[in-house]
Amino acid sequence: MKVDLHIHTSYSDGAFSPEKIVDTAVDVGLGAIAITDHDNVLSFDIAREYAKDKPIEILPGVEINTLYKGYEVHILGYFMDLNNNDFQKLIKAQQQARIKQTKEIIALLAKKEGIRITFESITNQVAKGGSIGRPHLAKAITNAGGTLSVIDAYNKYINDNSSVYVQRKTVTPFDAVEVIYDAGGIPVFAHPFDVDIADQLTKEMMNFGLRGLEAYHRKHSPAIIEYFSTLAEKYGLIITGGSDFHAPNPNNGNIIMGKNFVPDWIYDELMKEKRRMELAR
Predict the structure, then answer these.
(1) Whether pLDDT at 115 is above 90
(2) What is the mean pLDDT of residues 209-228?
(3) What are phi and psi of 124, to 5 degrees?
(4) In what order do the strands lie in the sheet with 186-189?
(5) Looking at the domain assignment, is residue 49 inside a domain?
(6) Pairwise CA distance, residues 61 & 59, whole Å
(7) Percentage of the residues of the chain whose pLDDT score is greater than 90
């Protein structure tokens, strides 16, 4: 069965609603998808309800943004109890950190650069209750005439070298892994190629419950896929994969790419791990 285990919706920084994601996934022949919005799980119930009579399975997922030694480390979670108290506390804390960061940057933009944007100009870009973040901030700056493009906004204002940028106060990857694991979920290191200490960090996160590596990703070359697949095998971790879809790529005819490069057996491995964890508890 063709799957895509890494997809974003309008409840974080994705362009499509949960319903449109489901329809698109069905259209391209996917049999199962996981919606993994950043620090947010509101889309799951919407997508699952909408997909009830459609030939597709919706898996519960999330992507937690964390920081460790200056690295931004993303942790995917699958099949956790979304109502688990500690998991809900984690999501709430992450949302509050996003709001605080955004308001502080808005104030600094006005004070230091004379660029005036409203908090609503950012929240209006996501579905109600969705996760705001840097892409929305960059678009608001551009729309206000602060820069000529979103890329310019990132280069000038949304980076650690900018005097108006404020780093988000977020959890460590160890916190995220542990909370997801304790909530009955499968924690996975997302697109590890982005973190050049991935090997050592993987070993450290295993002490907190890490159970997988996302070897298949649209940014991973065949050599990188092979490297992280071998690393996963070495440490007894499962291999997952997904397109990390946010919006249609004009250079690629396939809107959701998972059906083209994520092997069929990825789904089977994920479900085996789910059953193994259930039996172990």
Answers:
(1) yes
(2) 95
(3) -70, -15
(4) 3-7, 32-35, 57-68, 71-78, 186-189, 212-217, 238-242
(5) yes
(6) 6
(7) 92
Amino acid (one-letter) located at 228? F
**Residue 110, SS3?**
helix
In a domain, 178, yes or no: yes
- Please name the residues in contact with 64: beta carbons below 8 A apart, sequence gap of 6 or more: 38, 39, 74, 75, 76, 77, 90, 94, 171, 176, 180
**Residues 54 and 178 grouped into a single domain:** yes
Residue 167 within any structural domain of the chain: no
Alpha carbon distance 181, 78 (integer Å): 9
CB 174 within 8 A of CB 208: yes
- Domains: count for the chain: 2
Domain that holds residue 209: 3-82+172-280
One-letter amino acid at 167 equals Q
H or E segment to which residue 6 belongs: strand 3-7
The CATH number given to whatever domain includes residue 146 is 1.10.150
Backbone angles phi, psi at 78, to 5 degrees: -130, 140
Q: 184 with 259, same domain?
A: yes
Q: CA–CA separation, 266 vs 103, rounded Å?
A: 40
Tell me the whole-structure pTM to 2 decimals: 0.95
Provide the pLDDT confidence category of residue 250 given band limits of 50, 70 and 90.
low
Does the structure show a pLDDT above 70 at 257? Answer: no
118 lies in the same domain as 183: no
Residue 277 has pLDDT above 80, yes or no: yes
Do residue 261 and residue 232 come from a single domain? yes
Question: What counts of helices (H) and strands (E) characterise the chain?
Answer: 11, 7
